[in-house]
Amino acid sequence: MSQTIPAPGRSGNFLHYAARIREVAAANPSLEVIKCEGEVRTWAEFLPRTNKVANMLHARGLGRGDMVAVLARSSVEYLEVFLGALQAGLCIVPLSGMASSEQLEVMIRDSGSRLVFASQSTRDLIEPFRGKIDGVLADGYVAFDFEGDGWTAYEDLIRDASADPLYVDVQPEDGFNLIYSSGTTGVPKGIEQSQRMRSNHIERFVKLGLHDKAVTIVSTALYSNTTLVLMLPTLAIGGRIVLMPKFDVVRFLELSEQEKVTHAMLVPVQYQRILAHPDFDKYDLSAYEVKLSTSAPLREGVKRDILDRWPGKMFENYGLTEGGLGTILACHDFPDKLASVGQAGLGVDLRIINDAGEELPQGEIGEIVGRSGAMMTGYNGRPDLTEAIIWRSPEGEVFFKSGDMGRLDEDGFLYLLDRKKDMIISGGFNIYAADIEAELSNHPEVADVAVIGVPSEEWGETPLALVVVKPGAGITEVGLTKWVNDRLGKTQRISGVEFRDELPRSTIGKIMKRELRESYWKDAPS
């Protein structure tokens, strides 16, 4: 049960997220804060709706420590529930439509969510287990945009709730959101981020140029931390949101021009597709002040293309949803460091360790670890997994292990090499796919590439390049193999190239190497 108190939302010097929202809404009630597919909401229209969500939850006895899940397309209603739950002191659980029904059932049980909000686009994923999870309230399966037996209409649920603000004593270490790690197989881990961690993100993005006149376009899914790290600070400091339920290159460019978008957080594959559009240079993107990229490494050539053709500053961000480590590359300031992912971010202690847990000197390759003021509370209900991600420094400080291999140069810039689990060991030599992928990306006819390890009787495993070529390309698989092997070290040389129409990617643009490897290894001797 939450504690209702007549307080503005401060705990000492800490101002929690819902209190920040109340302050910016009061300061500018007529601001058109959200625009989504023609729907527009001012703060005066939007905030009372979030209040109704908060009061509805409170009336059901839900508050601090409780959770509600959302599995839905991006919409104004989704944001109402997100902010309303936070106002009531709850922890929000945004779920991915990329997961299977079986996985989603496990996630909802694991989180202990009391309500589950859905849209027509995700209904079929929930139906197999609807009504079978004891913790979900009797009217707790809530439909945003459809009707059906066993579903409560969203508007009916909040209709009689008060539109007055609800003041809850939210503390810095209270749960803000529970994000389940990406993946299409296995059971993802629930990453609990706190109010303090999200507050740290606001400060971080203000230092990167976010301000109260910002217009941020949101074109990735709301369940992703990639989306939330920029969208939430934009709202909290009084900026505007242009919300795209589904990414489309032409629509993105049109909205950027029409709405005079100033800020965007995109994933690498979006940058590639946008820049490749034949009409890209016809759009007026002069309002852009800051563009950011995260979730996967952005190729050096794409960074140069952005600097040459897209107005505004360009930052690449590398980090974990779990927090702890993070780097920032100001591409516009360091054009000679574009092969890196930048330097340690504000307040980040970044180090490189070997398999024995010993810290390595500058220049040596090892696993990347880090700590900062923004670190997850832990994996929900899994202290064993939380302990497994921790590396303790000689000083006794807690760092998070990334699972990524990298090295630091003499200026403290970090160069990513590969996921530790994806490293290719061929004939006893460690081969980093990123090095080969970077070389192949320099070929003028290569549009996309992934290098994986495949079985080899002679070497145990050997690197194979899976390549998407640009339209009209004349290079052959044999020709490209020779071209890249002439440029690689002897131990790096690939066994061949296979052309693909496309490479499988998650909804936030990560190439799914596990899926690519499966067909090659399923019949290999163990």
Report what the structure shows.
The chain has 526 residues and is an alpha/beta fold. It has 3 domains: 43-194, Rossmann fold; 247-255 and 273-418, 3-Layer(aba) Sandwich (Rossmann fold); 430-521, GMP Synthetase, Chain A, domain 3 (2-Layer Sandwich). Helix content is 28%, strand content 26%. The chain is built from 15 helices and 29 strands. It has a 9-stranded mixed β-sheet with strand order 4-3-13-12-14-15-16-17-18, with helices on both faces. A 5-stranded parallel β-sheet has the order 6-5-7-8-9. Strands 19, 20, 22, 23 and 24 form a 5-stranded antiparallel β-sheet that branches. Strand 14 (263-266), helix 10 and strand 15 (290-293) form a beta-alpha-beta unit. Helix 2 packs across helix 3 (76-87) and helix 10 (268-276) crosses helix 11 (300-309). The longest helix is centred in the first third of the chain and has 17 residues, at 43-59. Mean pLDDT is 92; it is low at 1-11.
Throw out a few tags for this protein.
single chain; 526 residues; alpha/beta; Rossmann fold; GMP Synthetase, Chain A, domain 3; five-stranded parallel beta sheet; 29 strands; disordered N terminus
